[in-house]
Amino acid sequence: MRRDSPLPNPINYKKDFKHLYLPKPTPEIVDVPSMPFFMVSGSGDPNGEEFVKATEALYSLSYAVKMSYRSSDVPDGYYEYTVFPLEGVWDLLDYTKPATDKSNLKYTIMIRQPDFVTRAGFERFLEATMKKKANPFLGKIRFEQAADGLSCQMLHAGSFDEEPASFSRMEEFCAEQGVTRTSKLHREIYLSDPRKTKAAKLKTVLRFSVQGS
What we know:
single chain; 213 residues; alpha+beta; 5 helices; 9 strands; globular
């Protein structure tokens, strides 16, 4: 059934999932459950054109889901919500090179989806979006569950280039709490648009998985 307006009382990640998306600017330990995502993997400098196109593809598909209440085939269980922010899981292609070498980065960027999205729904939305948008990265999008589990996180304020200092604080906190980082991978959740926000005012959630000693 088509609806001309969204449902009242929308889900807002800043309020309903505040502990995951608006953490304190100091390290903390959290348990992050499994969640559904649209995701795309790639490598290289995130300032390049490929990263921009991949991001645009994720948002195009995510907004197709959000606005589906206007279609003739509204998903079962649909509810109004705020589109979740872009996230990225980052790694290095070559561990002998410094983390500051952006051409050596490997990433999976993603946007969380509401739990009414199914595999069949994903395929339907993807097909419809590919007919409207000529973005080659749409064909690379996957629909998967991801769970960080036990993790250390904090809110980083400032430039992406200043993140190492925050990671050092997080690792020191983990040592104090008797937990250890499980790998070099880490997650970033982008609460600010770097195209519109000065570097000093950027807000990014930093998170990595940990285990007890």
